[in-house]
Amino acid sequence: MPELVVTALLAPSRLTLKLLRAFIWILVYSAALVAAAAYGCIAFTHVLCRPRRGCCGRPRRTPPACLSDPVLGEHCFLTLKSSGLRLHYVSAGRGKGPLMLFLHGFPENWFSWRYQLREFQSRFHVVAVDLRGYGSSDAPRDVDCYTIDLLMADIQDVILGLGYSKCIIVAHDWGALLAWNFSIYYPSLVERMVVVSAAPMSVYQDYSIRHIGQFFRSNYMFLFQLPWLPEKLLSMSDFQILKTTLTHHKRGIPHLSPNELEAFLYDFSQPNGLTGPLNYYRNIFRAGTGSVLVPWNQLGTQ
Q1: How far is Cα 242 from Cα 246, in angstroms, rounded to an integer?
Q2: Rounded Cα distance, 302 and 172, in Å
Q3: Pairing label, strands 125-129, 99-103
């Protein structure tokens, strides 16, 4: 069949897809503006209630002592074969057993696994990484650097770069979503997998379609589609929204001490410290997975 004829036959379908995509983006950004208004009110309320903190986040110049606790392990860096990026990780128990790899979620970092690092280092080589964009790991600014494929390649490079052919993956929130996909595409590298509070993407897709309330509980995800504004709102009143999220009596981290809270806020307070983590969310609709409403666990979106 002549190419001109094929092009003519496909033209209506291509036009329909373009219109559908444009309609979806209109809905996404409309929801983003509504969410921005709501979170803006919350952020400015925090500023009014605590005027001495001001409208910006206070940069932490010195990391809290708990981040360098030698009991948790040794701080190391690994250059990834696929991308050339450097990932920061904390390692303990090398030579004492199989690799146990910990993948954190948002708004967290490697320190989320401090108890597990202590508990399992006598029987496993435990490694807790700062995922791409977090903490001391490299943080590309481009949103397209945070696709699921690239993030899974990071996990593969970590496992192989540490000298292992398979590992036990323990993952939470965003790290768990990556782990589910990783176990499908790289099954030979996964010996066992422990998932905390996160279902496979297909489950989120099905649940979101059947339960419209999930869209309202995931309103922050639409906010995160906007440039620079989410970083500003989350940092206002010295990161009060993040503080509230992390210390919430029901949905936060139990028994979080002030120093431990600072262990999470330290990295986010650094220049562009929030941009990399938020780019995970900004890439959702770009990747064509807009029906996946990724949970911000501490907000209780499940």
Answers
A1: 6
A2: 13
A3: parallel
